[in-house]
UniProtKB/TrEMBL annotation:
InterPro entries the UniProt entry points to: FPG_cat, FPG_N, H2TH_FPG, Ribosomal_uS13-like_H2TH, Znf_DNA_glyclase/AP_lyase, Znf_FPG/IleRS
Pfam families recorded: Fapy_DNA_glyco (PF01149), H2TH (PF06831), zf-FPG_IleRS (PF06827)
Record-given protein name: Formamidopyrimidine-DNA glycosylase
Catalyzed reactions: Hydrolysis of DNA containing ring-opened 7-methylguanine residues, releasing 2,6-diamino-4-hydroxy-5-(N-methyl)formamidopyrimidine
A GO molecular-function descriptor: zinc ion binding
Length: 272
């Protein structure tokens, strides 16, 4: 499932291509992916412009020029592709939106995900449960420590809880735990101030590095996109079962915790 770095990469790149262009065509291939009847959904969007794209956690918010919002959550298997009708991807699409004369934004894999049209107030209420953004300039080590010290339970379970902090999923929770030299199963109540300080730095380092590398998506956003998917090669432990740990040389282990797969290096990750 796309996480903060993947959605932030999409936000940055899409902002360079589709802002202020009129929506000239809307095709809904799967009505369950939108929250209005297909014809009504298209009618509401035609002629409108996206004036700003915001990311909130794992969501994208397309701000329209009439004050409304398109709320996108890709969920598991969701992808975006921006191209022309000539270089349409050979994939099943659920929604297609054309901006201007030739920029078609293809929404792919929205079997669990969705693209819904809301008022600004509705969108705000729907996302109000999300925890704070960890890369927000208002976030710092002290606030981060205070936030997590209120919690009990395992490190990974807390990191992926969108009500506590927004944007982290399975992949980056494991990468953050590795960078902080903590086991994903470590109990928050057992961590020291030094552990929390190291954890906060790990959060920033991992998320910034992954975003700058383009996240781990399986296909580029455009035919000329050389960035998206670049962090596939930068993961140290996630999906690296049986490989050698780049830090201590031990073998990376795959386990299961609360129904989630978890990857870690037992040689250099500890419970505190």
């Amino acid at each position: 499932m796309p996480e903060l770095p993947e959605m932030e990469n999409y936000r940055i790149q899409l902002s360079q291509h589709i802002l202020d262009l009129p929506i000239t065509e809307v095709v809904v291939g799967r009505e369950k992916s939108v929250n209005l009847p297909a014809e009504a959904f298209a009618r509401e969007l035609l002629g409108r412009q996206v004036i700003f794209i915001e990311r909130r956690g794992k969501h994208l918010l397309f701000h329209l020029d009439n004050g409304r919002r398109l709320l996108l959550h890709l969920m598991l298997g969701g992808l975006l592709y921006l191209g022309s009708k000539e270089d349409r991807p050979d994939r099943s699409t659920q929604v297609e939106i054309t901006f201007g004369e030739s920029h078609v934004l293809y929404f792919i894999g929205l079997r669990l995900g969705h693209l819904h049209l809301h008022t600004a107030k509705e969108a705000e209420e729907l996302l109000s449960h999300l925890g704070p953004e960890l890369l927000d300039r208002r976030m710092n080590a002290e606030r981060f420590t205070t936030l997590l010290r209120k919690r009990r339970g395992s490190l990974k379970t807390t990191l992926v809880n969108q009500d506590v902090i927004a944007g982290i999923g399975n992949c980056y929770a494991d990468e953050i735990a590795f960078a902080a030299e903590l086991l994903p199963m470590a109990k928050l109540q057992n961590l020291s101030d030094e552990d929390f300080s190291r954890l906060y730095q790990a959060v920033r380092d991992v998320l910034i590095e992954a975003t700058e590398a383009g996240g781990y998506m399986e296909m580029p956003l455009t035919k000329d996109d050389k960035l998206t998917g670049g962090s596939n090669e930068t993961c140290r432990v996630y999906e690296r079962e049986g490989e050698t740990c780049p830090r201590c040389g031990d073998q990376i282990v795959k386990a299961e915790m609360n129904g989630r797969k978890v990857f870690y290096s037992p040689g250099c990750q500890h419970d505190r």
